């Protein structure tokens, strides 16, 4: 869950990180046939406190020794194959790896996958950059409760195309055109599409099914 900030300003409408300017099911270039032979190969490795930077600190609900850097290939919005890094709990490695394997096999497009420390562990900055990320030692906005991201058991995917929505207002603000979920399009999470199915197959819940506010980007092991 997130706290909706101030109403979007004109600056938000020119975000350079966003691949789309309005919902358009035809946006995005599918990978070419020469890329279809590239196999999905993921790997995981231990991390140190220094690796995690601002995203981890003493007192977090999970020690850094329990976290892993999961490197996964993915298809970008330009249709190119790239490698991304997700910091996840060691017991979530298999689930997240297999979810991204399904996304990769179906050529699902992801804007970028960079550990949140690249954004100073600032969730708002990461969302504005349309960045897919996992671990971040933070509480649920406006509460004293640890977010599932603080345990490394949650992943946010394409936050602009899958915003947090409360009372019709999107966070990040650039996600406002995607409050209407009926149009479909690349990068989106919908009830019966591959993004939802990929995590559902691993037993993970989706914030798009929550009552009240919807967190369309959010997938977690316990559904919270």
Which SSEs are present, and which pair or pack?
Blueprint lengths: L42 E4 L2 H4 L14 E9 L5 E9 L3 H13 L17 H6 L25 E3 L7 E3 L2 E3 L22 H7 L4 E2 L7 E2 L2 E3 L4
Antiparallel strand pairs: 1-2, 2-3, 4-9, 5-6, 5-8, 7-9
Helix pairs in contact: 2-4
Explain what you see.
There is one protein chain. It is built from four helices and nine strands, in the order βαββααβββαβββ. By secondary structure, it is α+β, with helices and mostly antiparallel strands. A hairpin with a 5-residue loop joins β2 and β3. The protein is globular, with a radius of gyration of 16 Å. The N and C termini lie close together (9 Å). 42% of the residues are buried. Mean pLDDT is 87; it is low at 3-36.
What gap, in angstroms, lies between the N and C termini? 9 Å
Fraction of residues in H or I helices: 10-25%
How many individual β-strands? 9
Q: What's the order of the H and E elements?
A: EHEEHHEEEHEEE
Strand order of the largest sheet: 1-2-3
SS class: alpha+beta
> How many helices does DSSP assign?
4
Dominant shape: globular
Please state the oligomeric state of the protein chains shown. Answer: single chain
- Rounded to the nearest angstrom, the radius of gyration is 16 Å
Instruction: Tell me what portion of residues adopts beta-strand conformation.
Output: 15-25%
Number of domains: 1
